[in-house]
């Protein structure tokens, strides 16, 4: 559930110049221009036809009689509706904790700027330093509490996600009549026929169950 962004900026300036030289020779009378050869009319080029659109890749069919298959749990967690909702809850908590910590840091910056004032007495400067020290302790505690709270939520969401997706995985495996289903990221899988990948099938079934379990919006009240 991590996100990385990379930004790059490139600027190029090209400058070109040209100079012409003059000679001191007298100008010669211009020669009589030769008669122009008759021009053959040029036919306009035929409009280029747009390239044909590439056909959509056909869905890989699960091999008949296959007894083994695999799924990618990370993809299910990141691409399914339920997985995206869990990531959104965790991100909302992270954003709130970061905002709270940012407010404390701004308070420290304000006190530090005030402390640099030349008109502040020694007693006032000492009192301001005590307030800064207290805020720094508060930030350390808030940081530890935030990390613990986020870890608790992540564990809770993972357990809930596994509880909901496990029956879907079992159902798909039973329908395909396979004997073993491997986790691509945990089984040390090096290569397998792409037709044995049941990840998208699990995501489709999982999303369908999630949509069916979602309570319907209340009907508008007629006036």
Q: Radius of gyration over alpha carbons? A: 35 Å
Say what the CATH topology of the domain at 68-212 is. Answer: Protein Binding, DinI Protein, Chain A
Task: Give the helix tally.
Answer: 4
The CATH H-level superfamily of the domain at 68-212 is: Skp domain
Please state the second-level CATH architecture of the domain at 68-212. Answer: 2-Layer Sandwich
Question: Strands of the biggest beta sheet: in what spatial order?
Answer: 1-2
Could you report the average pLDDT, rounded to the nearest whole number?
78
Helix content: 40-55%
Measure the end-to-end span: 46 Å
| Main structural class | mainly alpha
Strand content: under 5%
The succession of helices and strands, N to C, reads EHHHEH
Low-confidence stretches: 1-48
Task: Please count the beta strands (DSSP E, at least 2 residues each).
Answer: 2
């Amino acid at each position: 559930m991590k996100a990385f962004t990379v930004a790059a900026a490139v600027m190029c300036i090209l400058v070109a110049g040209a100079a012409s030289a003059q000679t001191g020779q007298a100008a010669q009378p211009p020669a009589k221009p030769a008669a122009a050869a008759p021009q053959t009319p040029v036919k306009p080029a035929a409009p280029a036809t747009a390239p044909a659109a590439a056909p959509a890749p056909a869905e890989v069919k699960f091999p008949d009689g296959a007894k083994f298959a695999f799924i990618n749990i990370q993809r299910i967690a990141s691409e399914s509706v339920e997985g995206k909702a869990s990531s959104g809850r965790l991100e909302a908590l992270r954003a709130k904790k970061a905002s709270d910590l940012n407010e404390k840091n701004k308070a420290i910056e304000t006190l530090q700027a005030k402390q640099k004032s030349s008109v502040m007495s020694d007693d006032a400067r000492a009192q301001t330093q005590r307030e800064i020290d207290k805020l720094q302790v508060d930030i350390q505690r808030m940081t530890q509490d935030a990390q613990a709270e986020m870890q608790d939520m992540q564990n809770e969401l993972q357990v809930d996600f596994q509880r909901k997706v496990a029956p879907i995985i079992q159902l798909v495996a039973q329908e395909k009549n396979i004997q073993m289903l491997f986790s691509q990221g945990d089984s040390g899988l090096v290569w397998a026929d792409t037709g044995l990948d049941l990840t998208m099938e699990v995501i489709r079934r999982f999303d369908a169950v999630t949509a069916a379990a979602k309570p319907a919006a209340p009907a508008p009240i007629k006036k």
